[in-house]
């Protein structure tokens, strides 16, 4: 295995390790429905728990729990207006970027690993 490939592989694994906790959080079906509801809202100032609950068909308490997980992970944001909380996705300020970077690197790494395997045969 050459040094360049070893370094590429090491960097790829580091990217994966940064993305893994976020991918785990995003792996939950209810959270995916919540994210879809947030996306469908168009990000226009955010939406409230009740609106998300109607779109996701999940109980209000479950929505609140999953929103907290998404908030704590930095995947979504919240703004408060008096006693009302509005949830939204701010793509410039989200922790999903390592996941995007990881998936952008998958195809090139697959090709590189394939070439390295062929060299050993």
Automatic annotation (TrEMBL):
Top-level lineage group: Bacteria
Limits of the HTH arsR-type domain: 7-109
Gene3D superfamilies per the UniProt record, alphabetical: Winged helix-like DNA-binding domain superfamily/Winged helix DNA-binding domain
Keyword Zinc-finger: no
PROSITE patterns the record matches: HTH_ARSR_2 (PS50987)
GO molecular function: DNA binding; DNA-binding transcription factor activity
Keyword Transmembrane helix: no
Record key words, sorted: DNA-binding, Transcription, Transcription regulation
Alphabetical list of InterPro entries matching this protein: ArsR-like_HTH (IPR011991), HTH_ArsR_DNA-bd_dom (IPR001845), HTH_MetalResp_TranReg (IPR051081), WH-like_DNA-bd_sf (IPR036388), WH_DNA-bd_sf (IPR036390)
PANTHER family referenced in this protein's UniProt entry, alphabetically: TRANSCRIPTIONAL REGULATOR, ARSR FAMILY (PTHR33154), TRANSCRIPTIONAL REPRESSOR SDPR (PTHR33154:SF33)
NCBIfam families recorded: HTH_metalloreg
Name this protein carries in UniProt: ArsR family transcriptional regulator
Organism encoding this protein: Faecalimonas umbilicata
């Amino acid at each position: 295995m050459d040094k360049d490939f070893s370094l590429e592989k090491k960097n790829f694994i580091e990217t994966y390790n940064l993305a893994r906790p976020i991918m785990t959080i995003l792996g939950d079906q209810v959270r995916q429905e919540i994210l879809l509801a947030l996306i469908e809202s168009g990000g226009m100032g955010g939406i409230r728990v009740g609106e998300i609950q109607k779109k996701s068909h999940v109980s209000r308490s479950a929505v609140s729990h999953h929103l907290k997980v998404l908030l704590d992970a930095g995947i979504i944001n919240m703004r408060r207006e008096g006693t009302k909380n509005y949830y939204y996705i701010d793509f410039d300020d989200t922790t999903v970027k390592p996941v995007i970077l990881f998936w952008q690197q998958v195809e090139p790494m697959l090709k590189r690993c394939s070439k390295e395997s062929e060299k050993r045969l």
